[in-house]
Amino acid sequence: MYFGQPINKLFGGDPITGMKKLSVDLGDRSYPIYIAPGILSDPASYLPHIKGSQVLVITNQTIAPLYLKQLCSALAGFSVSTLILPDGEEHKNIETVQQIFDRLLKDKYNRTATLIALGGGVTGDMTGFAAACYQRGVAFIQVPTTLLSQVDSSVGGKTGVNHPLGKNMIGAFHQPNAVIIDTETLTTLPEKELSAGLAEVIKYGLIRDPEFFEWLEDNINHLLERDNEYLVEAIFRSCKNKAEVVAEDEFESGVRATLNLGHTFGHAIEACQGYGNWLHGEAVSAGTMMAADLSRRMGWLSDDDVGRIMNLFEKCRLPTRPPIGMGPDDFLQKMMLDKKVLDGNLRLVLLKSLGEARVCVDIDPVLLRETLPPPN
Ligand code: NAD
Ligand code: GLY
Question: What is the rounded CA–CA span in Å between residue 63 and residue 85?
Answer without folding.
Answer: 10
